[in-house]
Specification:
Keywords: Membrane, Transmembrane, Transmembrane helix. This protein has four helices and no strands. With 80 residues, it is mainly alpha-helical. The chain has one domain. The protein starts with a helix and ends with a helix.
């Protein structure tokens, strides 16, 4: 696999992890009768921050792979 592909996959993983945090909190609140900002923030707090940290880490790794593919190895960019 090329570095661009790996970087793009890590960015996709980051987006999925970031969205799954909000989806999990929405599922957690599915039985609530009243919805407001404070309740949603409390649900996000109950979910925790590991998904957020994993998504940030995946994004950083993905961006580093993309930079590595584009900037550090310019000889590979010429090959098509």
């Amino acid at each position: 696999m090329g570095r661009r592909f790996v970087g793009a996959i890590f960015c996709l993983i980051s987006a999925i992890l970031f969205a799954s945090r909000y989806i999990a909190s929405a599922i957690f609140l599915s039985s609530a009768t009243v919805y407001d900002k404070e309740l949603f923030e409390a649900a996000l707090e109950n979910i925790g921050i590991p998904l957020l940290w994993l998504s940030i880490t995946s994004l950083i790794v993905g961006v580093l792979y993309l930079i590595w593919a584009e900037v550090i190895n310019p000889k590979e960019n010429l090959e098509i």
